[in-house]
Write a structure and sequence with these properties.
Blueprint (H helix, E strand, L loop, with lengths): L3 E2 L4 E2 L1 H15 L8 H14 L5 H9 L5 H9 L10 H18 L5 E6 L6 H13 L8 E8 L2 H9 L1 E3 L8 H7 E5 L2 E7 L1 H6 E5 L12 E6 L8 H14 E9 L13 E4 L2 E3 L6
Parallel strand pairs: 3-4, 3-9, 4-8, 9-10
Antiparallel strand pairs: 1-2, 5-7, 6-7, 10-12, 11-12
Helix pairs in contact: 1-3, 2-4, 5-6
Bound molecules: S-adenosylmethionine.
S-adenosylmethionine binds next to loops.
């Protein structure tokens, strides 16, 4: 293996291996040698900020299982790439079909519960909230509709909660969505927009490591688990699918990312669209 060198820092094979194991143990994220440069880049920033002289010193801090350091490490190591209406076909399906179906299905309780389980900086839960507002305008005041948005990374959650985005982040969404759901010119900054309070009131943001126990009892009508399981190994994925299954209401939907699949767990779900899976009403 090639060691990466920079004048001040050197990441040895042993240190890299330790970091891979550490991130796997606490977040389930699998890193391989192809991620070495990325790890180096992201952690060098922390080593510098902490005014440490080497990666070795930083690894020592992690080895001491320093509770204060762990969140900084996690926030640095996670990949948070996301966008509004990413994989648009999921939102088209929500607006055109699924949300209306839930209105019929949940008529008795007048309640809809949605979980966005790796929400990153918030673009995904806000896109879900916009879809809800568009499809269920006339039900919003009389129905109890809530979206739970969770992520392991406290930095992205803070950004998501604030709901403030650079204008270019929403440039591809329809004009009517921009004018209805985003306020322009936040404070002095004309290039930023803020998600409307209507959207923000629908969403609760909470920190949650998917590997840990989930405090929510469910059931959820819709669960979004998109572009996160790709970072996990097969065993972790199958374990998570079983847990999502338990938390879904009968007939509830699980949405995965474009390159993700259920693997052997597919037999418990019905594949009803591109990376959209329904938990059958009758258990199979
Ligand atoms: C690439 S982003 C995907 C964001 C969004 N779901 C989407 O599809 O656009 C992956 C997110 O998963 C989160 N993540 C990684 N490991 C996690 C874990 N063990 N528990 C909860 N979230 C995790 C990361 O912090 C990151 O924000």
């Amino acid at each position: 293996m090639n060691e990466i060198r920079e004048p001040a820092y050197r990441l040895t094979d042993d240190e890299f291996r330790f970091i891979c194991q550490y991130v796997y143990d606490i977040a389930g994220i699998v890193l391989n040698d192809s991620k070495r440069e990325m790890v180096y880049r992201r952690l060098t920033r922390i080593v510098r900020e902490r005014k440490l002289s080497s990666f070795s010193e930083y690894c020592q801090i992690l080895k001491q299982n320093d509770e204060r350091e762990r969140p900084y490490f996690i926030n640095a190591i996670t990949t948070n790439l996301t966008s509004f209406f990413r994989e648009k076909h999921h939102f088209d399906f929500l607006i055109d079909e699924e949300l209306q179906r839930l209105i019929q299905k949940n008529q008795a309780q007048k309640r809809i519960r949605i979980w966005c389980s790796a929400s990153s900086t918030g673009e995904e839960p806000y896109s879900i909230a916009i879809s809800v507002c568009e499809a269920l305008k006339s039900y919003l005041s009389s129905w109890d509709i809530k979206i739970l948005a969770t992520d392991i990374d406290s930095d992205v959650l803070a950004k998501a909660k604030a709901g403030i985005y650079d204008m270019h982040r929403i440039e591809d969404i329809p004009e009517t969505y921009k004018s209805t759901y985003f306020k322009r010119g936040i404070g002095q900054n004309a290039n930023q927009v803020k998600a409307s309070s209507q959207l923000q009131n629908l969403i609760t943001f909470k920190q949650l490591n998917l590997l840990h126990e989930w405090p929510m009892k469910g059931p959820f009508d819709l669960i979004f688990c998109r572009n996160v399981i790709i970072y996990f190994d097969k065993a972790t994925q199958q374990d998570l699918f079983a847990r999502y299954y338990e938390l879904l209401s009968p007939g509830g939907l699980l949405f995965l990312g474009h390159s993700e699949n259920l693997g052997p767990f597919q037999k418990y779900f019905e594949n009803i669209g591109r990376t959209i899976f329904r938990k059958p009403i009758v258990k199979v």
